[in-house]
Specification:
Length: about 200
């Protein structure tokens, strides 16, 4: 192992301990020792993201992508950084690539759906969650987000079905239960909404 690997390993250990400023120093040393170190740039970006330095994180992720264009994680993290920077249309491009490269990663799909919704393209968000659920069936977060997108489209019966499935998959998530109640209310099924609201207050 060379100096780049040594600094990289220390950076990852420090990151795991939540010592982000120190981890960044080691990540900087890793990519200085080997500028073509894609995983080094990716780790450096993830540390910058934890520090809330999203613009710098995006640059690091883009460098990792230049070096390894088929790295779905780098594409996904770049997309997530762009969402944080409120640039959803740019995020879509990265997240589409991320879902194609790593279709089994739920977060890529969740972020892609959010990027479409923030880009005022709710229909594409619905299609994204439906496509994701074919790859990762019965995922409560994907079902919940699908329900929200369907509700925004005033497709209340379909929204209720998605939220009911999400609630069955994760009955202890209060956000899912609350969204189910909101969809019941949208469909004017108040008798079913009220007990959920009461339970959430308790």
């Amino acid at each position: 192992a060379d100096a780049a690997d040594a600094h990289y390993r220390i950076a990852k250990t420090l990151r795991a301990e939540g010592r982000y400023e120190e981890a960044l120093v080691e990540a900087d040393l890793a990519v200085a020792a080997r500028p073509s170190y894609a995983q080094g740039h990716l780790t450096r970006g993830s540390i910058l993201r934890r520090l809330g330095r999203y613009e710098e994180a995006l640059k690091a992720f883009n460098r990792a992508i230049q070096l390894e264009p088929e790295d779905g994680r780098a594409q996904g993290l770049a997309g997530a950084a762009l969402l944080r920077l409120d640039r959803p249309k740019e995020a879509v491009t990265y997240l589409e690539k991320a879902t194609a490269l790593e279709p089994e990663h739920t977060n890529h799909w969740l972020n892609l759906g959010v990027a479409y919704r923030k880009s005022k393209n709710n229909d594409a968000a619905i299609a994204t969650y439906q496509k994701a659920l074919k790859v990762i069936p019965n995922d409560p977060q994907l079902l919940n987000n699908l329900g929200v997108a369907l509700r925004k489209a005033r497709r209340y019966d379909e929204a209720i079905k998605a939220h009911e499935q999400a609630n069955a998959a994760d009955p202890y998530d209060p956000a899912i239960a609350r969204n189910l109640a909101i969809s019941y209310r949208g469909a004017k099924r108040y008798k079913e909404a009220i007990p959920i609201y009461i339970k959430s207050i308790e």
